[in-house]
Design goal:
This protein is mostly helical. Helices cover about 65% and strands about 0% of the residues. α2 crosses α3.
Length: about 100
Amino acid sequence: MNLEKLLQKNPFKIKKKIKYDFFNNMIKDLTFHHYKFCEEYKKIILNLNINIKKIKNISDFPMLPVRLFKYYDLKSVKKKTHCKETCFLRHLESKFIKNLS
């Protein structure tokens, strides 16, 4: 199931397994994206001895303290595209929150 289809549904009628699988896949995709495009993030993952290719479950993903993002410039997008992607993500987030209400 893709995000657009998911956002069109009533979140309380979606089976737990579908939500879990969707969330797990999104986290996995984001982790790979950051690993590939953010050198600092990649260094953190490597220093934690985590093989992200072997990660299967959400509980195996690296949980990083939010403080890291406050003190370090961990970005996986170019500065020019950052605003467009941030705006798009905020738009999706607001749609998702609206559907939860």
